[in-house]
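Anyone opening a protein record will find just a pair of labelled lines. A complete record is shown below as an example.
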Amino acid sequence: MIGRMPVLPIPLLAVAASVCGALAILSAPWALGQPWLNLVFKPLTTMLIILYAWPRGTGRPPVRRWVLIGLVLSLCGDVALLWPEQGFLPGLVSFLLAHLAYLRAFTRDGVRLAARPLPFVLYGLLAALILWQLWPGVPPGLRLPVLAYVVCLASMAAQAAVVALHSRATPGGRVGWVLAIGGALFLLSDALLATNRFAAPLPWSGLWILLSYWLAQWCIASWLPRRAA
């Protein structure tokens, strides 16, 4: 399977993803004002992160499979959100399923769900605060999907922190913290997106939302061990 997709050097992928991400961000009206750049380079950036993740984690097939599923579902969400109004609900569902896939991945290495309660308590409080602030601006028809999404998102971020705590005494403990940072960045990205949509427009919103989003995905992909030489 791995041989069927190109395995590119990590520095090349990082540069390519950075350039594509920058072009997608600069498509906004406050920069270049070229919407077609977003249509092309937003999905392409996530595809490059999938290419980065593809050869990793081959020694842990169940974990690798669910991380890749999460990335592909995120790509589907990216495509849906290219149409912010019509695609919002399909995009929300795609990312909800992506978080469930990541949750599945984060419990495949002998770390059970919520094995450390504290991250779940802290992320639960943070999610409740975000919902409390945004709830008046959420249309009634979207309140149940948004609530379900926030629960899945906060659970994913909390479980990423649980994995980091569980692995801190192991040789690969640093990678666990990269995963925890990825989960936190994903929550930050979606909190910014929701604030921009349901509360008040944020200056340069695309920059902060997309930058934190792609950094989150790169961190999650980086959690997968590199393929042995």
